[in-house]
Design brief:
Blueprint lengths: L1 H31 L6 H32 L6 H12 L16 H40 L1
Keywords: Ion channel, Ion transport, Transport
Protein name: Potassium channel family protein
Length: about 140
């Protein structure tokens, strides 16, 4: 059982690293682009970030699913992806469960998923706030002229 917990912590750390690197790459790319100031530019940028973050979360879910397959915790890829997704997103329908020696991985995946979704939400909020601050600053500068 203790080795299973070590596996779980390794998966959690891997998930955080993938998320951190993914966000860093996204921010680097967004830094190179001109600031979005028009309605459609802002909308497209936020849509792009949302899609990017969903893909990043799917990659992280896939890491857990690959582990479940590797350790033969679940019978096939579809079941492993499904279980991992509902656990990561803390939906947890309960019709697919891990066998007794592996059960403690599910709560750790769920907690990791909550943290990563919270990080993504915080990033999204920070982006909207940054766009708002740019628009507000520009409006004040226009009023001064």
């Amino acid at each position: 059982m203790s080795s299973n917990i070590l596996f779980a912590w390794g998966l959690a750390i891997s998930t955080v690293i993938v998320h951190a690197v993914g966000i860093a790459l996204m921010l680097r790319l967004l830094n190179r682009r001109k600031a979005a100031t028009r309605l459609w530019a802002i909308s497209w940028r936020l849509a792009w970030v949302a899609v990017y973050l969903v893909i990043l979360h799917l990659a992280e879910i896939s890491i857990w699913a690959a582990f479940y397959l590797w350790q033969q915790c679940l019978p096939d890829l579809e079941t492993a992806l499904y279980f991992s997704a509902v656990t990561y997103a803390t939906i947890g329908y309960g019709e697919v469960v891990l066998a007794t020696p592996w059960r403690l991985l599910a709560p750790i995946e769920g907690l990791t998923g909550i943290l990563m979704c919270g990080l993504s939400t915080g990033l999204f909020f920070a982006m909207v706030n940054h766009i708002y601050q740019q628009a507000h600053t520009r409006t004040r500068d226009d009023l001064k002229d």
